[in-house]
# Entry
Amino acid sequence: MSSQDLTRRAGWVHHPRIPVLGPLDLSMELPVASSGSPPIQHMVYTDDGLYLPAVSRQPAGRGPFPVVIAIHGSSGGLGVPYLVDQVMNQGWALDAMLARGYAVVFAEGRMEHEDAYGTDIPFLLDHLDMITMLRFIARQPWADVARIGFFGVSHGGEMQMKLIAEIGGRTDVPMPAALAMCEPAAIEFLGLQYEGVRKEANLQFQGPVADAGIALDRAMARIAQVPDALPMLVVGREEDHLQGLFMKLHELLLRAGKQSAWASFSHPEHAYQFGPRRDAEGYRPDAVQQATLERVLAFLDIHVRDKK
# Structure
């Protein structure tokens, strides 16, 4: 009888720093009616044993195609039904990108844990899931790894800054070609100072935000991780309670020598950039939605689709 160490921990032990042998990802065509390319469901395996959902559509042809990864704010945990509904019934902006030759991917990570960013809380955060998603998309034969951009709204804008600060200087993750950040709620990334609990009533920052209103040194250290040549578009909304924060992000990016462009529009609805919900007559975007999308598309066309 061989000797055994009876003091060792029993059962399986997960080692997050040891890569899991794969492939453990899953992709399958969804059984839903669609005009043009069918939507593909992806379940992307993470280092800690979860699956991240995404839905993609590709243009006609073999590729590889330029890609736009779209992420909304605070959608983590809603899963595949939410993503399918967004792509099929609120996919006006994505349809426009598809028509211009982009493969589009609507993705989400796990549920957001507010105020956990920058702490020592021992669990993964949703922006790290988007790094996993980026690596997955870059491995697909239909994706041009040198031409992958992000389009995100609200928390989906802040996640772009978090993931770029995380992968800046790394060689194991492809650097996106460009970031389009609409109403980026960079509360945690910039360390916005506010009184009381985190609710909209205490987050009224429509006017300019002073340096003292954020954790400036920490914010600039994070921004320093962003590659100087990375093109970024920050899109504000004049009625938004965080318009001053959007402007502050753009200001600090420029102060740090980064490539940031600014655009702002007046619209009554937060996250209007994805467009209206489909009705019996199809999509009926308003003039501001159309103008905003044209600005975003012009940016993506230059820095992603037509990148040399």
Notes: The first helix runs from residue 79 to 89. The longest strand covers residues 143-153.
